[in-house]
Amino acid sequence: MDFGAFLRYWALTLAVFAFYLFALIVASLDVLESLRETARKRRAERKPVAGDPNPLATRSVAQTIFPGPGQQLDGKRAWVAKMAEDIVRAVNPQPPVRTIVLEDSKGHPVVHFSDGRRLATYRFDRARIEAAMAGDAEEIAEVADRLRRHLMADFLGREDVRPPRTTELMRESTAKPAAAKPQAPVAAAAPTSPEASARAEVPAPAAPQPAGDPESMSREERLAAARAKAEALRAARAAQKPPAT
Length: 245
Fold this sequence. Notes:
By secondary structure, the protein is mainly alpha-helical.
């Protein structure tokens, strides 16, 4: 048996199998590409769903501020919201008014009233609400009265009952009384000896005021302040010495 002819036979056989395998792979890729192109054309033929670029365009601010279902308020906001809802039911403005209570960055409750067309916002002091929640009858009446008057003024047109507007600075200035200035003590008796008289006639040097925060002062400023303080102490000791005879 010719061994060379045997090798040529199987080499040609393997070459034919490799050719058919390569052709099968190319045909499979071509079929996959055609299927992708068909699917792409079908998606393009479908009518695209038009998305609303601005879904809030038809809504007012009053219609978008209210939270969705399932959102729970904390204790303070729930207490204010219950009082506001009771006042809305008592005043009964038309169209109906909805209520929501939020908080600003400092924890002060902010009450929003809205009838779908108009949004009115009122901010209450946190200390006043906490005092009312603690049972202060005067603060409870004050909060309820202000909410009722604001609601009637904005949604019933009763501007004559609107409470005066105040700012936080005005509230602080009225809440803190002016501190009384301390009176200087009266001397019990005048000095009698000449040495005491001389010491009393010499005025004591004023203590130097610190220029600022010691941590923010430079090294030169701290040294200058220390020298001034030492000079003041030295002058005070010299003034307290009795005059030489």
